[in-house]
Amino acid sequence: MGAASRKEPFRFVMNQPIDCWLEVPARNTGPGTGKRTAGVLLDLSRSGCKVRSSLNLRFTAGDTRLIIYFQLNETLLQFNGSVRWGWMYGLGEYQYGIRLDLTDEEEDILKHELDIWTMSSGGEGV
């Protein structure tokens, strides 16, 4: 399969996980609603990311909306997304795949931040 046929943007694997915060919007119900819970960002693309956190969402795939906050460079980024999958990672730890629901402007901001981050940190794209 040639590079021109790739439909998914490159995923950047964090050599060192990056701190992030997850927030379930107040309009939802359930664990973590309206509060930020610490986590770590494990990988990132313009369409989604993988995170690990102590937040047990007990989600139904695609129904759990959240806001993710993280900082690659100087700017604190905030994006809306939805949980696509999740499982218990260890005792009191959960790992989630999050689809980011980005506007065109947010996608441009994320692309710019990823470009700077990869040049300064040697992040790995796969």
From TrEMBL:
It comes from the Bacteria. Residues 32-112 form the PilZ domain. InterPro entries: PilZ_domain. GO terms for molecular function: cyclic-di-GMP binding. It holds the Pfam family PilZ. This is PilZ domain-containing protein.
